Input
Amino acid sequence: MTEDHSIEGDYERGEGDHRIGHGDHSIVSDHTAEITKLDEVHYPVPDPGHPEHLPRLTDVDVKAADRATRQVATFFGLVPVLAIAFAVVYFAMPGDMYFDFGPLRANARNLGLGVSFGLALLFIGMGAVQWGRTLMDDHEMVDYRHGAASADEDKQYLITELQKTADEAQLTRRKVIGRSLIGALATIFLPMLVGLADLGPWPTKKKRAETIEATIWKEGIRLVHDVTYEPIKATDIEIGQLVNAEPENLKDLEGTAFLVEKAKAAIIIVRMNPNTIKIPDSRKDWQVGGILCYSKICTHVGCPISLWEQQTHHLLCPCHQSTFDLSDSGIVVFGPAARALPQLPITTDADGYLVARSGFTVPTGPSFFERDSRHDFKRGDN
Ligand code: FES
Output
């Protein structure tokens, strides 16, 4: 070695010498010492080098290695059990069962799904960590910097190393690890597949008519204030006023059924001067002295809406700016909604309270998947 020996020269010398096994630390230390000696400006303090490598218990004790193998296989083996538990909880656990933890309340099904899927992921991670820490080969390596291009011999070297790594990871010797890992990774996707069923039933025409297009409105159901369920008298509503309301029979429902029906049946009641609005002949008896009732659910993608401009009689949806003219059968005057706002036919009962004459005559809710009806809408059609 000469006086002008460069660091790069040392790196070149190291190429191909990528692996240093147990007991080969002198190579690392000698190399570092050489740099230290030759370049005292950059390395003024001697590098103590790597500490002595000590074998792990599993390197020297077969029983400990077997024990670690069982631990890894147990972690991986629990994953299919938990994945199946996820599917069982999803289908078998009632959605309205709750557990109380002091002041906290948890839905039993959500808790079961979260615990089973969370533990499955955790056990894959714990198995992998235990495998790496106790059983995979523990030799130290030095890899010198070099150009980014991969030579053919490097590629060949990589393939050989991968094969060697598989051997060193004891995948060939302890086959149960590989098999249990394959089982774990194959079944970890089961909860995700099962979760797809949560997107809802296939929306055939019949299914839509039975579910999303059906509301609890029917003849004689009173219109009541949202939240308080106070019935609404026609004489209590002023011209220009908007009232958020619900069907009276909503208060008989609970839990998910309550939320589902509320999302479809929510309404707004507005009072306008009957002499300044357009009421088609087919809807003459759908209103009470200028009091009209419409669905509160925007027909674009279903936001609940109540931004009311009483001078123009426009109802604005802040989500994507669909605008409905409530003085003209709820037609869309602006925005992406494809269908007019459904109108609920109303009248009054013997006590003067507002009641429904029937249910909605058209579906409430989103219409973004339908063609744009603004250009061929006939008043009274919606
Ligand atoms: Fe109303 Fe989009 S949801 S405009």
